[in-house]
């Protein structure tokens, strides 16, 4: 005869207790021991830098941790075989960029350069696999050494592409056995980037390129940036220079610039507008960027006008004047005269011309566009939510309250400028303080983690981590750009790609008016960048937002894994339920993940993850 207790257990677990039953019992006993023990310590580290002697808080925290561990072990015991690691992609996807399938675009009828444009509608199939680095891939050198020397195996660049390239920035490279080295500024004596920058400053009427900021030039869009040497020099002058260049299957300008730690994004306005609002940049630069500016009835120049702020500069270095023969002056005249008609319609004035370099300045008078019958029509409405729309044959931004000449802008937004963006100064100040505190918490959280994972990195002469180990940062839901501002104020050696999700409040004009880089993006789609291009991804509330947009969290995390470098970091902030779901998915993607309680009594949690270095 079996006892009543045994009969009850038989009804619950069956006649013979299984390993599942035993494991569940053991876990339950452990939970009771932990909860009843008065001397147990919490397994979570507080995000704050000081200890809170709050017994109730510690008890609640401990209880929640025990509950989470119990549920996690229960999940494993009930069906460990249901949670499988995501598989690895094949070698053909090592440098894969979704939405840029040139073959599919050609089959769909796109031509005349449009085959290199972004067409996510033709890339609907999703392969749920992890993009692996090439066999020769190595962790990039820490900043600033990584700006001047990169591993050649980290980028898809053949020796023939290097040797056949003739632009100024490409001539500054030195291809060695397994590295690509870039000349430092000290050695740029003749035909160098530093001299070129001084030339532009002189043509604008400045004494030196160090006066760009005083002249109102804080943000520069560098179209077809070569491999980023001009942008690197501008960054040293405390300007925000963003490289934008078309997708290239190999020899990519964007991939190499990002590998150097320079701001860059894939962009091609052959047929569509770039994902920036009107009046975004103080200067647009093109040095031999292979764009025929007088084609399509000046449609490309109209897009440049849309992006330029009032009083901004368009710097064009034309390739047609490089031939040293009798046709040089003729070709120069063709370039100058063919653009003259279009630039007059745009109310631009030609400031200066020296050899192959031209500089135009956009008007500060918004009435100029309507004062003559020969002018280009003004657009109706606004372009606040434009997202890869067709290029427009009309002038944008003239009716905007943001029509403020670059010379009149201050370094910091005043109350009047904040009100233009619908912000009260007190709310903006509160947001700034929030991100200053959040940054200190993030940094105190990441520093010991990075140091423990890399006890021999950085070296004795390097700054403490993660000052030079985290450089390329993306804020995937940037709000007002507060994290970027906090990083700048704290003098961290990073730059931030601020992303405003489609469907959220469009704060991108505010971000650009603060002098930061940023784009509008739909996170239901892949981001326009190459694999392994960011060191840190930050997203506050993005998971909840994408869920409201009916986006797949799993596909979003896979995309984050694609653009994150091996050993890179992810910081997600969201509600408890959302973070727990993300934590489960993170385990499938092989991330090392931990949940952090913010200790403020709210439902918000942090999920801090690190991507491992996985080889195929």
UniProtKB/TrEMBL annotation:
Task: Identify the main location.
Answer: membrane
User: Which biological process annotations from GO are given for this protein?
Assistant: methylation
Q: Which PANTHER family match?
A: METHYLTRANSFERASE, SAM-DEPENDENT METHYLTRANSFERASE
Q: What is one term from the GO cellular component aspect held by the record? A: membrane
Q: Which organism is it from?
A: Solanum stoloniferum
Q: Name one GO molecular function term.
A: methyltransferase activity
| Coiled coil ranges | none
- Which superkingdom, per the lineage? Eukaryota
How does the entry describe its membrane topology? Single-pass membrane protein; Single-pass type II membrane protein
The protein depicted here goes by the name Methyltransferase
Per the similarity annotation, which family is this? Belongs to the methyltransferase superfamily.
List UniProt keywords, sorted A-Z: Glycoprotein, Membrane, Methyltransferase, Signal-anchor, Transferase, Transmembrane, Transmembrane helix
- Which cell locations does it reside in? Endomembrane system; Membrane
Where is the chain membrane-spanning?
21-39
Matching Gene3D superfamilies: Vaccinia Virus protein VP39
Q: What is its EC number?
A: 2.1.1.-
